[in-house]
Structures are given as C-alpha cells and as structure tokens.
Input
Amino acid sequence: MRFILDQDVPDTIARIIQQGGHDALRLREVLPVESTDAEVLAFAHARESLLVTCNRDDFVALAKTKPHAGIIILVRRRTRIAECSRFLRLLQTAREGGLRNNVNFA
Output
C-alpha cells in the first residue's frame, strides 16, 4: 500500500509503515506547508495513496464531497507508542480492502 502523511503526522508512523513493507511519503517533503486540505487530498488521490492525517474535522468533511483513495485519521494519544499501536492494529484488522475509499480512525 502507498501512504501519504499529512504535515501533522509524527515520523514514527512513517517508520512503521515502511517497516511493514509499504510506501510512506511525507507531505512536507513534496508540498508547501501552506497547501490547502483540498490540495492535499487531491494530491493523495492522484497518486492512489491513502492519506494519514490528525486533522479530523477538515478531512471528514472533505471526504463527503471530494474523491479520495482512503483517509486514516490518527487520533492523538497520550504517547507515541499508543498512537503507533492503534495504527498498527488498524492496518492488521482492516487491511487494504477496509482502508481503500473509506475513512478510518486509528
């Protein structure tokens, strides 16, 4: 699977994705920080990549009106370990079929 990580996603999530054999692209490496959420979603969709973001409110609303390959909302937790654990659990249980074209929370 291919993932694009929004500006607000911790680097530890990128490492977990890569260790699982998937592609992880950090938006801050390819798009200006001031890119709009709609531009970010369009960028991920054009690359048929799942978007990982912590920006729940904006992307849940956009998902209702814009095409996307799938969005994972990373819920901030007390520790990075807890965030990583929830993310890994989602990947293992939902797999690509459950993530594609859906909005999921980790």
About this structure: The chain has a mean pLDDT of 96. The helical segments are 11-19, 37-46, 56-63, 80-99. Residues 6 and 40 are 8 Å apart (CA to CA).
